[in-house]
Amino acid sequence: MRSRRGPVAWLPATVLAICIVAGYADAQTTVVKEGKLAADRYEWGALPALTFTSDIGFGFGAVASLARFAKGYSPYLWRIEVLWLMTVKQKPGDGGGVEFPYHDDYIKLDLPGLLGGRLRLNLMLAFSRYTTSGYFGFGNAAKVDEQARDQNPRYHMVDRIYPTASAQARIRVSDHVHALVGAQFIYNWINPYEDSLFARDLESTDPAVQRLLRGRDRFGVFEGTLGWIWDSRDHEYMPQTGSFHELSWRFSPGWAIGTDHGYGGLNLTLRSYRALIPR
After folding, report:
1. Alpha helices by DSSP H, 194-268
2. What would you report as the CA-atom Rg of the chain, rounded to the nearest whole angstrom?
3. CA pair distance 239, 234, nearest whole angstrom
4. CB of 8 closer than 8 Å to CB of 55
5. How far is Cα 231 from Cα 245, in angstroms, rounded to an integer?
6. DSSP state, 90?
7. How many CA atoms lie within 13 A of 39 on its CB side?
8. Residue 99, Cα to own-chain centre: how many angstroms?
9. Mind listing the pLDDT tens digit for each residue in 18-44?
10. What residues form DSSP beta bridges with 192?
11. How does pLDDT run across 130-145, given as a tens digit for each residue?
């Protein structure tokens, strides 16, 4: 299944956040001592967000977090982050009305201080739905059938629902080197629209289409990750100098869960930091 564009690609670049950041802590632990916050405290924050694209319309939502700071733990003892996001757009065609084509919700737990700081664990539960996900056929030569789309505005669309559960561990090998081990499970509901290209391909008797087409039924995908991280940042979330590089391999052994949805990929991400105006 080939999709022209998805929310994952544009969302980080187009969110226009109006920040409302607040902090709360117990009165006995937020006393400022010598110009510094107390080591044992809670902090929370919230960010409302607005976004717009012509594909899925106007988006609105909020992200909130709660962190527990404690002496001897860096950058915190634990942190919970919650996201709720949805978009609204006029329904395709001339029928009028609105729809909510995209939902993205998650809760994340970050535990950086396990095993004396040698192990960092990130856990996530997420739910996403993309009711206007694009489907244009197979290969890079797939084209938009404008005549069919004019007759049926959802001709090149499918409705995809995909809850996700993931766990990722960073194991400190030395001051700057970490081993990366992760696992993720995504369960997919692919719902075809009536008289859409995807619905027609599902009913096709062409052997090539039957062999290549995935998503005929509900199915799960397991993905594993193995890799290495180099982290020399002077501060985790406000770095002025240093780098944060990742070399990892992600893979899905479909046979492990009784499917043929197997794949693999190599990732290299390089990040370097230099403050334009030092603190």
Report:
1. 197-202, 207-212
2. 23
3. 6
4. no
5. 7
6. E
7. 5
8. 22
9. 333 334 434 334 445 555 778 889 999
10. 158
11. 999 888 988 888 888 8
